[in-house]
Amino acid sequence: MMDQFLYGTEAAINGLMTGVMYSLVALGFVLIFKASGIFNYAQGVMALFGALTLVGIQEGQVPFAGLINAIFGTNIQKFGWELPAVAAIILTIGVMILFAWLVERLLLKHLVNQEPIILFMATIGLAYFMEGVGDLMWGSDIKTLNLGLTQGLNETIDAATYDWFGYGFYIDNLDITAAIIAIILVVALTIFSQYSTTGRALRAVADDHQAALSVGISLRFIWVVVWAIAGFIALVAGVMWGAKSGVQFSLSLITLKALPVLMLGGFTSIPGAIIGGMIIGVGEKLFEFIVSSSWFGDFFGFTMNATENWFAYVLALIFLVFRPQGLFGDKIIERV
Amino acid sequence: MKLKKLAALAVAGAMLASPVMAELVFPSLSYRTGPYAANGTPVADGFADYMTLLNERDGGIGGVMTKVVECETGYSTEKGVECYESTKGLGALIYEPLSTGITYQLIPKATADDIPILTTGYGRTSAANGNVFSHVFNFPANYWTGASVAVNYLLSENGGSLEGKKIALVYHNSAYGKEPIRTLQALAEKHGFSLTLLPVDHPGQEQKSQWLQIRRERPDYVLMWGWGVMNQVAIQEAANIHFPMDHFIGIWWSGSENDVIPAGMAADGYKALTFHAVGTDFPVFADIQKYVVDAGLAAGDGSNVGTVLYNRGMYGAMLAAEAVKVAQRMNGVADITAGMMRDGLENLVISDETMEPIGFKGFAPNFTVSCQNHGGPGLGAVQQWHADSKTWEMVTDFIEPDMSVIQPLIDEDSAAYAAENNIAPQCN
What we know:
The structure holds two protein chains of two kinds. By secondary structure, chain A is mainly α.
């Protein structure tokens, strides 16, 4: 029985860590929804695009090489240089800022005052467009991230828990890095929104667009800022998930993991995204651990596997019944 | 007046144009976009490049040029069916759908349309029974023979006994991933090993629970039926928990360069099954380089030549082309129909005599197709990844599956399909 308790604890801790990875994706959604009321369907593709761009820049890949070669009959692939990780990250952040500016200029500017569903549909279009552009720019092959992120068993935790309990817990070094980055992001975002002029303007826009406009806050500038920050967060999420699997087009599907987190944590709360992620992570890992165990099978006569995908949504739906706005979301008040 | 002149010129041009040339049409249901693009692209390139080679080197097949009509499926079953419907009227000779899901949908349609389907190493396993599945061919190997080959390999590694061993199957939680379960259960009963089933939901980016369970239960071997991102994540997670890579064996769809390179050196020693050779050490590759890549006619940038999935696409094209030759000989015509192509597939003989002139000798096992047996011999080999040189090496010869276990399963499943669909046996 002690063994099962230890295994369950290990599953719960890993759930917490995995939940943080989900939260990294959910954070980008929250920022944009909070500032503009847009549910950004393209957030997952932004993570893919950011990670693709980072690897492409770092490896000196010529953007649109396939297209250029097909049109002009050339055979160019690379510039011939490789950039250090820091330089590549800075340049990629620049690309994501440029992307935010283009989204505002070419898309959002033309959709001011439209219904939320119109804006949502626009982000669906944006997602498909970006996926296509990403393919044309960097190709569809799987790319390996080379940022020096360590992965695998944390030997210190393994040894320490083995000494204490006689069983070494498995905690992934990459998950620990992700947790640290998530904490830094939340603290930085909180400080930014509480203490900087732009951050306060962002909150004002989030509270009331019209009122913010009336006191001279540029809605368009704030949108660029928000999309740029969401782009940066997408880049972080793309890097952390891409480190596990290589950077490939299935990265865009990580949004599937962020949706229950948003439903549970609320669409407008940054801490909600983190805590929601952790609840989903722990919940799904513990549930999977319990229903797949032999003692569950002995008791009920059956076991279950691969429950994580659907269980996350079930858990979120249960929370929705009691708190439709999510755990930390703004209370919905409809005036009639 | 100008308009009249233009119309007259157009009519004259049409009259002077050369008569329509016969072509052998091969639709290619490819997926160069979407989450599985990294795998779909080299397969489609290999298929297209081999057909280009036939045109450039041999002037087509039997004097008739080949034409590849690509249709993008994005690995979506619905789009795959749309592609079938939109290309079958172009004179399609054969479909190689590159997806088990699409294959299942096309089996009744293609049979009704008298167009054969070739699913090398995927699709519906019991289609090996040609008596029931008249238009479906899944030679030279299928998932059930793959499962048996893996177990036979493990038997050879363990002195002929797996008694008391623990084997885990990590599989894509889909029709494809579930294919080997029945066979493995039967083999577990026969050889006395325990089988743990660990499904992974699509797309497979998160597998922590499965690998924590493997770390706890410490199976002797892990088999994998994965596809796409599931493979890369599984190999990385196996490395993370220090699972011995040479005890981790994937099916042939979990054994490409794409699957192991992201894990870097940690993937060293990982094994996978294959039903054809790896690398470029065959004369056909020199021809591909000369007539296709160097001539600027390659479907891609040429960088995929010799990779596992490129070779698989090329092998699929070669099998189709050889079946065309058989059909041309059988019917005494060069411009064959899809019905003739079906007959060609059913009378296909792959031997050293057929493989050597086309530069494929030793690339894959020899086999003979018959009316009863559309599945071939089911031979498979084991390849191992060397992370330092980034190459696969074949570490076994081609291994025979245990047909005494598989054949009854094929017979049972195909009989059920025949009863459900009122299919009369087609072979005498």
